[in-house]
Fold each of these.
Amino acid sequence: MRSCYKPPRFQPGNSVYNPTMAVNTLPMEDVKAPAGTRDRAVGLWLLAICACLLAMIVVGGATRLTDSGLSITEWRPVTGTIPPLSDAAWQSEFEKYKQIPEYRYINKGMSLDEFKYIYWWEWGHRFLGRLIGVLFLVPFLYFYFTKSLRPELLPKLVLMFVLGGLQGALGWYMVASGLTERVDVSQYRLAAHLGLAFIILGFIFWVAMDLLREGARVPQPRFLHPDIQGTRTAMIALTGLIYVQIVLGAFVAGLDAGLIYNTWPLMEGAWVPPELFPHSPWLANFFEHQKLVQFNHRLVAYAIAIATVVLWWRCRSPLLPGPARKAIHWVLAAVGLQILLGIWTLLAAVPIALGLAHQAGAVFLFAVALYACHALTKMPSPVAADARAA
Ligand code: HEM
């Protein structure tokens, strides 16, 4: 234990989480759910939705990497479920695609079969989105009408559904940016679409953890030992930085900035490449200049690596709950893997398989970072554990 530790804020009725002392004066039992609620089933269902979202993110990545995203030029949320079924229907879709700049300037002369290939990717991405909507809504109604949900879950589940709908609309807003003047979509809208995907995934994953992790619903003490408090704050900040890096990655992808400067660790033969800010206003370079966007993605990766190693070193404190310590080991492994994948993807100039692996790696890293935050935020009290064991 650190010598500087003083518990000055401790007052009767509050508690300091400190596994070395039995000072937790809060009720030790899990907050009782109303009879009939089925936390485990609901939690597993939400976890399954997270797995579907991982698939959705990967298929979205494949849609982008195969340049398929602009092949469906309309947004028909309901009737669009059915793909073209006749030759005439395919021809009609192809004619609409021929009107947009991507066909005229990039894909002119494309055959109908080639068009079908890109169409199926985009259709698959949209279909998966609709399917996830159904996989969410139907069990939700079942759980609701069988009174299997804790009351506090209801607004969260409604919010998840609304965010899912918003993500569909944002996807169309992104596609629309590539249909009139550009030959690709706006990198800003791509980043917003990917950024919201990770927010939705993170939110659902967090609520699933609330339901599935043992002890997550035990009332938490208001004051923590400084070692635990410090590690928790650092882990939350690291997760925020990982999120920023994911959004930066979307800018790298949206600007095709992974197709240039395919060397590592140097860029243009230097640690800091020249002419990072050629455009005016200065700020626009951060989001529109390929060189700076890629450079920043590298820099933030190094910052994440350093922060993770420091945090991992700190997590040797015996005061940290076991699951949190294990989770931080996983975060270290996931960061290492993701950085290696990123470097490999860059050196190979983004082949589809590596681009997808790097994207899936980001989902994995984000999930384990959130798990670590959860393990440091919702801790089963040691006394509660004793009480349960008795
Ligand atoms: C913690 C570290 C990292 C995270 C969380 C991360 C995350 C991401 C994400 C989410 C994307 C967007 C993928 C997409 O939308 O398709 C991306 C793209 C990319 N990242 Fe990273 N990245 C990391 C480190 C690196 C490193 C160290 C490099 C290379 C030095 C790198 C190179 C790239 C490249 C080249 C792309 C563009 C791939 C494409 O066009 O599909 N990344 N990254």
Amino acid sequence: MAETKGLMLLNFWPSPNGMRCRVALAEKGLEYVYREEESILECKSRLLAKSDPVRMRVPVLLHDGKPVCESLVIVQYLDEVWPDRAPLLPADPYGRAKARYWADFIDKEIFGCGLKLWKLEGEKQEEARDQFIRALKVLEGELDAKKYFGGDTFGFVDIILVPVVAWYRTYELFGIFRTEIQAPRLMAWGKRCMKRESVAMSSLPDPHKVYEFVCFLRKKNPGLQPF
Ligand SMILES: N[C@@H](CCC(=O)N[C@@H](CS)C(=O)NCC(=O)O)C(=O)O
């Protein structure tokens, strides 16, 4: 593998997993080379295939040429290597355990279930919609009256969830519901996050563009399965 000094992120623009890494890098104020996979669903770049030979999925972070895969692992890696720059996880082990629990919940119940919303149809899609709305409400309860999930400071759980802002439109149009009505506090949280420089400068894609991309994918691959 070509030795890459410093940091490089391999990504594909609609990926919520890649967005998390971009926000974390921005929070930490780290410079990195951004490399977009041209058409990840059809063919992978040689660098991606070498960096993640097992799954060949984005995002991958290359640190001095060494690959780190999986968005949750990447964000935690950045926090461990640069602990003094905008710490993302709480300092105490119990706080960290809780944050990791919520990150896992978000991964499965929001983004995992979100895939089902636009890949399935009929009854199965309706079940996914109910599951998704339940998860939004659980997160509303966890956020409660706090500014961010960790309290006053934007942190790990916020970073893991914030890409949902770019995906709400797609989830809503396929699932036929309004997040504003089902989870108004989460909507307000999303707007608050969007005002942060780290989120604004991380190129979260336009929700309309994400929706168009998903429609294009569905047309191209009828009978898509969620996993
Ligand atoms: N759990 C992984 C999921 C990564 C993932 O699903 N990446 C998608 C893009 S969002 C991908 O590379 N898909 C191409 C493929 O599976 O061939 C993470 O959090 O990084």
